[in-house]
UniProtKB/TrEMBL annotation, chain A:
Superkingdom in the source lineage: Bacteria
One Pfam family linked to the record: LptC
Descriptive protein name: LPS export ABC transporter periplasmic protein LptC
Gene3D superfamilies recorded: Lipopolysaccharide (LPS) transport protein A like domain
Length: 198, 139
């Protein structure tokens, strides 16, 4: 194909040469990839890589079990790690749910918790809150959750918002009474404040 | 017999405070029982008893009655009344004490079987073999 003027010839050549060079350029692109330097990656990693590698940790652990009187107990946490003395484990940001066959449920939450191998109980501490299906909302600083039977024990002062008022007491215990229903027992300087609404 | 209680007034809208040694709340039906030197106080009315059981109104957020038993003592500035049991209607301010009621008002002593007190108006009604001992010279 001969053109009389230079411009058309030049364009014709360009239509062939340019795509070919583009193709060549792209195909060699992958040859020049940079190497990812693992040392450098550590600086930008959000999770503390060194700590993760050094420590034994379990993220988002979940414990679930059945107590002798048939109540289901499930405990989840953000992270758990075995104790330094080797006995028991401690966990952070725990959430637990206790459901008894009678239909009573208790939702527990705490910032920190420990599994005490001796008594087999899970000890929640640091901003412990309990919400029961019967409308009680309790806040305390320490709560022992038994894993072999339905029993919650709060040895330190507890404050409870009940359906009919606020209750404060030195200790609280929730257990199954002979009749099979759950009893919430407050002991020591119990005070109920009830505001009658007309 | 009509009795006037000058001191026995309770503001039935005031907050009711119940303090005790222990409280057991049954989570199934929600009955609450206070035990161990229980003191019910509302305004300046104090009612001491051994055990107090809470009875709810229609929905479970309202307390209708407080059943005090095991020896009840009602105290105010000038009067004191003792009985075996008492039922306090929280909403209406009615207090009914039954069982060997002994009421002292200054030097006057009155005993009977049943004492009904309306804490709103401070008037009371004693009946059941009422015996009154009036000290001469008292007002």
């Amino acid at each position: 194909m001969h053109y009389d003027n230079r411009h058309s010839m030049l364009v014709a050549w360009a239509k062939v040469a340019l795509p070919l060079s583009a193709l060549a350029l792209l195909s060699v692109l992958f040859l020049f990839s940079g190497k990812a330097d693992p040392e450098m990656a550590q600086l930008y990693a959000k999770v503390d890589v060194a700590e993760l590698a050094r420590e034994q940790r379990m993220t988002a652990p979940e414990y679930s079990g059945m107590t002798e009187d048939g109540a289901a107990l499930t405990v989840t946490a953000a992270a758990a790690r075995p104790d330094t003395d080797g006995a028991g484990a401690s966990a952070a940001d725990l959430k637990a749910k206790l459901e008894t066959p009678g239909g009573f449920t208790a939702d527990l939450a705490a910032k920190a918790g420990r599994i005490d191998p001796g008594s087999g109980a899970i000890v929640l501490s640091d901003q412990v809150t309990v919400q029961t299906s019967s409308g009680y909302r309790l806040a305390t600083t320490k709560l022992e959750v038994a894993t072999d039977r339905t029993a919650l024990t709060a040895p330190e002062p507890v404050r409870a918002e009940g359906p009919f008022g606020t209750i404060t007491a030195d200790q609280m215990r929730l257990g199954t009474s002979e009749s099979g229903a759950q009893d919430l027992v407050f002991n020591g300087h119990v005070r109920l404040l009830y505001q009658p609404q007309e | 017999q009509q009795v006037a209680f000058a001191g026995l007034r309770a503001d039935t809208a005031a907050a009711v405070e119940v303090s005790a040694d222990s409280l057991t709340v049954n989570q199934a039906d929600g009955t609450a029982v206070f035990t161990g030197n229980v003191v019910i106080s509302q305004g300046d009315m104090r009612l001491k008893a051994a055990t107090v059981e809470v009875e709810y109104g229609a929905d479970r957020t309202r307390i209708a009655r407080l059943h005090a038993s095991g020896g009840v003592m009602l105290a105010s500035a000038t009067e004191a009344a003792e009985a075996r049991e008492a039922v306090y209607e929280v909403t209406s301010g009615q207090l009914v004490m039954t069982g060997d009621v002994l009421m002292t008002q200054g030097e006057n002593v009155m005993s009977g079987q049943k004492l009904a007190v309306d804490l709103k108006t401070g008037t009371g009604q004693m009946d059941g073999r009422v015996r009154t001992i009036l000290q001469p010279g008292a007002n």
